[in-house]
Amino acid sequence: MTTIEQISQRAEADAKTYGYYLTPNPELLQAFFEGLKTNENRYGYPLCPCRLASGKFEYDRDIICPCDYRDIDIAQYGACYCRLYVNKTVYENKNLPDVPERRPIEKQNRAYEPKTSTAGASISENQATTEKTIPTQAKSAVSQPASTESGEVKKKLWYCKQCGYVTYREDPPYICPICKAKHEMFEEINLKISLSG
User: Fold this and answer.
1) Which fold would CATH assign to domain 155-197?
2) In whole angstroms, what is the distance from residue 126 CA to residue 114 CA?
3) Most buried residue, 27, 52, 80, 171, by most Cβ within 10 Å?
């Protein structure tokens, strides 16, 4: 089981590495740590405590904390969507900005897709607790397929044209974790293997 101490140390080390700070609000910080601990113990990976997850790693990859959107949010607003990570200015003036959700709606909708129960009936694990909080925009799109007809994520190889970083996932990251190049600097790698013999 992951502990609050482990979550705290990991977040502090990550903030220091990238020149960020953790939220200056101690109550909010404790709530974030509790949420990250709960999600990591529930799903096996530290999901963003401010977003609803599907529980499928491939669907949730972009919101594993720190999420794909953190760096671009901090660059634009001074804080990430959750406001767990902030820049120096926000940390010093303690004025947490409102940060709009940057995650595409089709990725958000995956958390609302029906799951199948052991009895074979279609259910939504989150329905009881989230029905009242589902955004109208998301409700209208829930019936649309998330990625492929089978519901599987179609992964691709992507490389950063600036530094050469390579990743295998559905979409490239919003910002390269190595050189901080923007999303547009990633290009898909298409491999062709021919067998001759």
Assistant:
1) Rubrerythrin, domain 2 (2.20.28)
2) 9
3) 80
Q: Quote the tokens at residue 86.
A: 């902030």
Residue with tokens 């329905």: 127
Tokens of 192: 């062709």
| CA dihedral angle for residue 126, residue 130, residue 136, residue 140, rounded to 10 degrees | 20
Mean pLDDT, 10 residues at a time, over the chain (197 residues)? 92 94 97 95 92 91 93 96 97 97 93 58 39 36 40 82 88 83 87 73
Instruction: Let me know if 83 is exposed, middle or buried by CB neighbors in 10 A (0-12, 13-18, 19+).
Output: buried
User: Can you count the helices (H) and strands (E) in the chain?
Assistant: 8, 7
Q: Write down the pLDDT at residue 114.
A: 67
What pLDDT score was predicted for residue 4?
94
The full set of domain ranges for the chain reads 4-103, 155-197
Q: Which residue has the tokens 């600036």?
A: 162
User: Was domain 4-103 assigned CATH 1.10.10.200?
Assistant: no
Task: Please report the pLDDT score of residue 151 as a whole number.
Answer: 62
For residues 36 and 8, the answer to whether their CB atoms sit within 8 Å is: no
pLDDT at 197: 58
Beta strands (DSSP E) in 18-149 are: 21-22, 85-86, 115-116, 122-123
CA–CA separation, 175 vs 184, rounded Å? 9
